[in-house]
Amino acid sequence: MIKITKIIFSVTVLAAFSAINAGFLVDENPEPRKIKPVESQAVINSVGFPADTALNITVTPVPGSPNSARISWDLSRGSSDTFIVGRSSSVISDTSDALNALSVRIISSSDKNFIIDKNLAPGQYYYVVLSKKLSAAKKIELFPNENYTTNPLIIDDGKNPRMGTLPKISKISASIVEGKNVLLTWSPLNFGGVKYTVYRSNEPLNTPEKVRSAEKIAELNDRDRFIDRNTVSGTYFYAVTTDDYSGNEDFSLLPDESFTVRGIKVFNNDDSVVVSSIKAVLDEKGYAKISWLNIQNFDGSYEIYRSIHPVISADKLDSAEHIASLPSYETAFSDKRSGPGTFYYAVLSRNKSGSLNRELYAEYNYTVEPVSVPVAEDPVKVLLIKSEAKGTDVNIIWKYTGTDYKDHLLFRSDVPIKNKSDLLQASLVDAFDLRRNYYKDFNLPTGSYYYALVSENYYSDKNLVLENGVNVTSIPVEIKNDSADLNYSVHSFSAIRNDSASEIRLTWSISGSEGLNNYSIFRLTSFPKTKEDLSSAELIVTVDIKSETYSDKPEFQGRYYYAIVPADYLKNESVRFQKGVNVTSVPVMFMKQNSFQKDEEIVIEEIEKKKETGNIKTPEKRKDDRDREEIKYSSDSVDLILKNYFYKKRYNEAIKHLSALSSSKNPESAKALFYIGRCYVEKKEYYKALKYFINKSVKASMPKQAAFWQDYCIKKAKGK
Q1: What is the CA radius of gyration of the chain?
Q2: Cα–Cα distances in Å, from 147 out to 85, 93, 218, 534?
Q3: Final residue in a domain of this structure, among 314, 339, 373
Q4: Is this prediction's pTM over 0.90?
Q5: C-alpha–C-alpha distance, residues 330 and 218, integer Å
Q6: Of 240, 198, 238, whose CA–CA distance to 217 is shortest?
Q7: Local structure of residue 347 (DSSP, 8 states)
Q8: Domain with 558 in it
Q9: Which of 61, 149, 258, 330 could be 326's S-S partner, Cβ–Cβ 3.0 to 4.6 Å?
Q10: Are 578 and 709 found together in one domain?
């Protein structure tokens, strides 16, 4: 439904008029009659229009007459008035424009409802047809494309008339450059000799009147950009106009084409760079996509935050989740890890010195409208998984569909994998995203092996189906017991810290019965990728591979990986590195027990003894206060939490304190997670406990304990 704007103006009318080369001048002055307002074209028809109103105005070029136009119209029912045809070089948008139009012809209602306008010079032309009687009544009612045209007739230099809209500038954009200046760009007209006029205001320039009253800051010839350097702190809006074919300034306005809809904020302080024009929408894959305007010459980073509430204040920012850091040349980010829900975003700038600008401005650097992320409609699906033996290695290949390809787990088992319980009994080989399409499982002992490839949240996925030949291998791959398999081979290599003995316990399993039995153990600060990485590692010992255990006592505290390889590894071409096979899956943090911790434990023990004997009196405190003051532990002191809560059967308090240490950045994370699971076992909440025992860091750090309690929970959950 096309809306028609009705414009009613009172006009001053002169006593007489000239038919040619004059504005609309009438010699009658009756009182204006009241006309019922007309809101939209849907309710306007020839009956609904005021009497003596021209309708359906049409302007077309005249065939064979290159500089002529045919103007035609219809009359409303019962019209008997005389009509005036006017011409203008600009859009007739109000009464003043109509009165200043050039009178072309006066037509009686009894004449034909059209005229031929001849001998038109190159330029653009708009037309209007008005009743003489209604004009004399001091009221002119304008109806777009009924009694006046909105698109011009254009006659080019070759005097070839055509109808259409004059070319307009488009894609206007404003951005901050050099810290506090505004770069304005647009797509120019596709011909030369054009004058562009740039306007600036503190409000949107969305009407010709606002543009005319705005500050004119530049007049440019054949340019498509301008830098506004004369700014102070504030918010600015811009518009760009052009001259039309007749040399008149064209005030036709289109949002985000010829004028900016969103203001751009300018700061005088170079350290207060603020992102502007933030937007958050769903992309084609169903992820939240956050975008913002580039800050030119900004040498820093963009920090992305996500929250379930608008980030309108410092406390909301503190509670928001920091999800990404991007270099200064990035202007968009796809949040692929939000999951389903409704989210708000903020993008803050961090300068090169590391200082974060925490100033918050609505719709500049934080969103006020949420973006709703639906449940993924295109979940990833493994289509085919195959395995084949190559000596003591197994190659696993697969295909997949979907977009959420990350965080998938590869399991290995010596029995068919048919359900989730079988997955829990299987060995976790590695975690990766599916795009690699290929994985090599190294150095396997003689036996038969099945594989499964599932998402990381497989246990909680109620829709998970294990299908032979799809995400589970249906035929086992065989590692044969030939002569080569008789050589010693290491697998299931792990490291567990023993705080009480201030040592790290290394254990492994072997296969084979002959060959080189001297193996070297290296201590490293990062995961080794090639044999050359061992040259910078510390060789701590050479052991008999059949011992299957060794205790390391590092001299210094640190975060360590361990690798075990044949002593002749430099000339052994078969040496490769694989997590959990001959390299520890995760690093182990070694912390020497300090005197502070020991003193702390002694003090706590003494206080507890005095409380039991009644030799110390303490004021009554709230339970939460008591919990906070009762124990003061260092960041890695899981044992102290166990001592003061778990072993005293205060499982809820233990869970609360252990959860604070379960961050992946904490070296005690795996141990904390394991004992959270143990707390839930004691609470008989077996399903909750199970998710902690199947955690990959727990299984890597404490494989035997995790396997035992995993099996225990499964049996208890099934009522066995």
Answers
A1: 40
A2: 10, 12, 37, 88
A3: 373
A4: no
A5: 30
A6: 198
A7: E
A8: 487-590
A9: 330
A10: no
